[in-house]
Amino acid sequence: MASAVQAARLVSRKAHVLPGQLHVTELFFEVPKNHARPEAGTLKLFGRSVRKHERPVVPLSGSELASKEKLPYLVYLEGGPGFGNQDPQSHPLTEVALNRGYQVLYLDSRGTGLSTPINADTVLAQGGPQEQADYLKLFRANSIVRDLEAVRLCLTEDFDDDKKPWSIFGHSFGGFVGLTYLSKYPQGLREVFLTGGLAPIRRTADKVYAATYKKVTQRNVAYYKKYPEDVATVRHLAAHIESHPDGRIPLPSGGQLTAQLFLTLGLAFGGHGGLDEVHSLVLRLAADLDQFGRFTRGSLGALEARIPFDAHPIYALLHEAIYNRLARGAPATNWAALRVGQTLRQFGWLAAGGVTDFLRATAASEPLYFAGEMVYPFHLDPGSAELRPLRDAAEVLAAEDEWDEDLYDEAQLARNEVPVYALSYVDDMYVDFEFARETASLVRGIKVHETNGWYHDAVRSKSAEVLAAIFKLRDDDID
């Protein structure tokens, strides 16, 4: 069990009533930057607490109003790592949860959204590459769950004891965080919901990428089956990029487009409609070349929007680190996605000769495969003007083989008493299904709904069906 946590300090609270009868309270908290060393300074966390705004015929008494303010919390944990929350009125969980008697807390994890966000300037201010890497290591799941527990203690301080534990709903990386929470502070949890978030807790980064490249390959086959004309078009676009000096085209935000960066657009293949999104962008770029002989600013901007690392730096800097589950004894990730990809023929464009050598060595009828949820050094340099200054810190993180603590406690998961409900997707391109099933077997009492009907982003793109399915797991007893 993890060490005790001090309650967060609430520093700002502002309440609003939004259209749709939502009572939203904007909250800022202070928490230690390093929970193990509270004297090292603080970070701010931002969240929005949401409950129904009611206008009864007879005004509520003081005690009735107080009881409304003390409804049980359901906390949404966003995916990533590195993404903040969308507005509550736009989130599909809000209405469903409020109708079930919760109030909902959308808390931006440290470093994301409005919670002391990570950017190049704040990281560079820490000192040299080692100091920068040490700072970034404070933004992993173990720190996130301490923040959550600190905020829980703050918000529920005057709740009755039976209402102090709260429920969490973790999507994707948010589910990884949920498993860390179960490992370290189960006493703070009433129930846990996970969608696409059963972390591969017994697998190294190399094993994870070996599995996910197989799923990415399947999605590429599906893409070129649906859009066979794109075999020639994608090769043509890649060759055009390679024909520029140093194989680079300036991007509107200051980064540099390379053919390899272009081939990371397959990140979208893991979501509903992702094949069509990539085709639409390929079509747009090809139309630019046909009409102007170059890519227009609008098209380059649209391409940049599909590669989210500039706006979400943690996603690039700490993505492989989420698979470092052990404090010691596990190998460094050492750019695992790149190393594993270089061994696969279909992704030969990742090898030293790059895309040009791959095009020369393969027939015109052979497709160029897009990569999926993988982070490569060229995402940072030359791909991103924001992340380029942090390349040295990223190298330190990639070589790191000692972390502050384990992310999961298998012994605690094996004796778990918190109800856990999970949706697991057979065709998940980001979280391998077999590894997810392995993890589920380690959590005592978990109920899992496995399906091949949805992709990883279903909580957003198929929200009504997904939310109905996961709450059905809670509502329906087997016996």
Give a brief outline of the structure:
This protein is an alpha/beta fold and 479 residues long.
CATH class of the largest domain equals Alpha Beta
How much helicity do the residues have?
25-40%
Task: Name the strands of the widest sheet in spatial order.
Answer: 1-2-3-5-4-6-7-10-11
- The CATH superfamily of the largest domain turns out to be Alpha/Beta hydrolase fold, catalytic domain
Number of helices: 20
> Overall mean pLDDT score?
95
Shape: globular
- What would you report as the Rg, rounded to the nearest angstrom? 23 Å
Proportion of strand residues = 5-15%
> Which consecutive residue ranges, at least 5 long each, have pLDDT under 50?
none
Reported by name, the CATH topology of the largest domain is Rossmann fold
Structural class: alpha/beta
Main sheet properties: 9 strands, mixed
The number of distinct structural domains comes to 2
